[in-house]
Every structure is written in structure tokens, then in C-alpha cells.
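Regression test case RT-17, inverse folding.

Input:
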């Protein structure tokens, strides 16, 4: 019972990257202008703890293409650093592993309803009068966990694709940057350096 209650599902709502607190981090000399959050994206306490256990903090980047051509932003094009130290971006799968919730475990609530009773020398399967209550609770938790995991998947889709992220002419794209916990000292901002890599048909150079 204690294990089941501790595994109660919690609703997760992905943060809106478009409303994040961005600060300028780019250069007008390149084809893209960049902004970056200087504080990790906020999460409710249960999910903040999950990220902390995985040594993760999530930042965001806003890239704007003011040219008339599509620009391909590739993983190696963006270098993040703080206080002279390179910051290595963690893969999106680490974010999913940190924030996902188990779904199947909530089916165990169904076991709290039925029981075996003895009638004479015969054993019969019976149900507690309130047997439907834990079953309904299990179904509800399973639904909450499933929907929350879908929100997590949508958030992870903002991480940089291995094949690059196309930014259409005169448009803006938001990207999630999973970084190690306590990445930037309070006195040292996160700096971004952009070096465009040529993209060719059939592969990346």
C-alpha cells in the first residue's frame, strides 16, 4: 500500500518556451540571432526533484532567422559556456527518463479489490464491498501518468535533432538545452557561440 501511494501519478504540464525569460546571446554578424534563458525552466516540486536526481537543469534557446533562406541549425553549431567552461548538452532521452512516470504499476490497485474466501471446504473468489474504489483510483492514476508522459514527449521534441533543425525564412525556433545541474554560477552568465556548419544533400559536413 505504501509503495502504491508513493507512486501516485502527478500531472505534468510542459513549460511554454515562447514565454521563457530570454536574454540576448547572439550576434548580428551571423544569419541567426540568438537569445538564451539564464535560469533553468521552472517545474513543480515533484518534477524539479526528478531532474535534480538525474543532475539535469533545462534551459532554452530562441533562434531567429531574418534571412530569405532556410538555415539549418546543427548540434555542433552551438557552443555553450559559462565562466570559460564548456557546457555539454545532454541528450533528450535523459530528460524523458527523468520526467516520465510508470503507467503499468497502477494496475496493481486492482489487486486490492478481490480476495479468496472459504465457504465450507470450498474456496471462492470474492470482492470487497469497496473493491471498485481502488480499481477506479488505479485507472485514474494510469490515465494521469499516461497523459503526463505525452506532455514530456512533446517537451523532449524541442531538443536539437541529430540531423539538425531547419529554421524557415523570417521565423523563430525554440530549442531545449538540457545541461548539468548548477551549470552557471550566479555571477557568470551562460554564453553562446554560433558557428554555422554547411549542410549538404546526403549528409552533414
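Golden output:
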Amino acid at each position: 500500500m505504501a509503495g502504491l501511494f508513493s507512486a501516485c501519478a502527478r500531472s505534468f504540464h510542459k513549460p511554454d518556451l515562447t514565454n521563457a525569460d530570454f536574454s540576448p546571446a547572439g550576434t548580428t554578424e551571423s544569419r541567426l540571432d540568438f537569445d538564451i534563458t539564464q535560469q533553468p525552466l521552472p517545474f513543480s516540486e515533484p518534477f524539479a526533484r526528478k531532474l535534480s536526481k538525474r543532475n539535469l537543469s533545462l534551459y532554452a534557446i530562441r533562434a531567429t532567422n531574418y534571412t530569405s533562406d532556410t538555415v539549418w541549425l546543427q548540434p555542433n553549431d552551438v557552443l555553450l559556456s559559462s565562466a570559460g567552461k564548456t557546457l555539454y548538452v545532454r541528450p533528450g532521452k535523459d530528460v524523458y527518463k527523468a520526467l516520465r512516470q510508470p503507467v503499468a504499476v497502477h494496475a496493481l490497485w486492482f489487486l486490492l479489490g478481490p480476495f479468496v474466501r472459504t465457504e465450507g471446504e470450498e474456496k471462492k473468489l470474492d470482492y470487497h464491498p469497496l473493491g471498485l474504489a481502488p480499481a477506479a483510483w488505479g485507472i485514474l492514476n494510469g490515465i494521469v501518468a499516461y497523459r503526463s508522459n505525452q506532455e514530456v514527449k512533446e517537451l523532449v521534441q524541442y531538443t536539437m535533432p541529430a540531423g539538425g533543425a531547419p529554421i524557415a525564412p523570417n521565423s523563430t525556433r525554440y530549442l531545449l538545452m538540457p545541461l548539468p545541474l548548477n551549470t552557471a554560477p550566479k555571477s557568470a552568465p551562460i554564453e553562446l557561440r554560433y558557428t554555422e556548419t554547411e549542410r549538404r544533400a546526403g549528409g552533414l559536413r
